[in-house]
Amino acid sequence: xxxxxxxxxxxxxNEVDYIDSFINQLLNQSIFDECExxxxxxxxxxxxxxxxxxxxxxxxxxxxxDNPMGIVSSALNEGIKISSNEIIVRMDxxxxxxxxxxxxxxxxLLESNANCVGxxxxxxxxxxxxxxxxxxxxxxxxxxxxxxxxxxxxxxxxDTVYLGCWKKDYxxxxxxxxxxxxxxQDDELCMRIRMKKGKIFQSKEIKSSYLPRSSFKDLxxxxxxxxxxxxxxxxKHKRTPSLRHLVLIIFFLSVFxxxxxxxxxxxxxxxxxxxxxxxxxxxxALAFAISSKNERIKAHYVTFSILIMHLSYSFGMIIGLLDxxxxxxxxxxxxxxxx
Length: 339
Known about the structure:
50% helix, 2 domains, globular, alpha/beta, single chain, eight-stranded mixed sheet, Spore Coat Polysaccharide Biosynthesis Protein SpsA, Chain A, 12 helices, 10 strands
């Protein structure tokens, strides 16, 4: 493994409250001195860039570059262009990392012979009640749709991984990240890898904890954008990354048309009502099951979290579909690029 070195690329914008913790985690990496760290700043105006420049003066292997486009895809692509090492590792600001995160990324990439490797997408439960409820909902199979990428105990081949690690030459060969996508650029890259018969491998030894949103408003906007940009990935490749991505929009459109037709045909209204009641009871049952295992997690917060994730994601997909007629893209552009 010593013959391979990694370049770590991190998109960043207006992260003054989190950047110190992130830098400390970089410094704590087991092979910090053997790596270069490229942080692409997207025009921060809250003091983040000033902090980064001070850190880069102390550590020559921490490199700060500008990302004038201000989106994740362009940050990653610019970092890839100037990187000097054979392996690329993505690390985001709002994530906590195991001390051996980078070392294990390199090890798994070389040993698995996969084209892309990463760890499980695990949400961190902390003292914030709303954030913990969101994290618990995020990790449940009911929200994840059975995705292996959220199973913290699973190691094996998957359709996508959290963050990611690749050989630089392969990333360039496949075209890097799609800069037309504000969101879902990682899913789209993994989709291209699989379409070209590449392999994506998840290892439970690559450990990190994602810090979810801490308010329902932010959660709503996050999943609204996930759904919106998913449509553009599907449109680009004329296929969906996974059928589970269509389940929610099919469900909610069925409910909408069921109630609409139910105004004319009572039996349809009755069936649709039973359908919706079954869904809501399932959400409540899951919320109480989660809260019963941890007294800090409140069932009503978990319920709100699940409903917001499902509804906003589906609504985002509907808006994405309508974008063929009306352009909503500018309304949904992100101000935060690092999460």
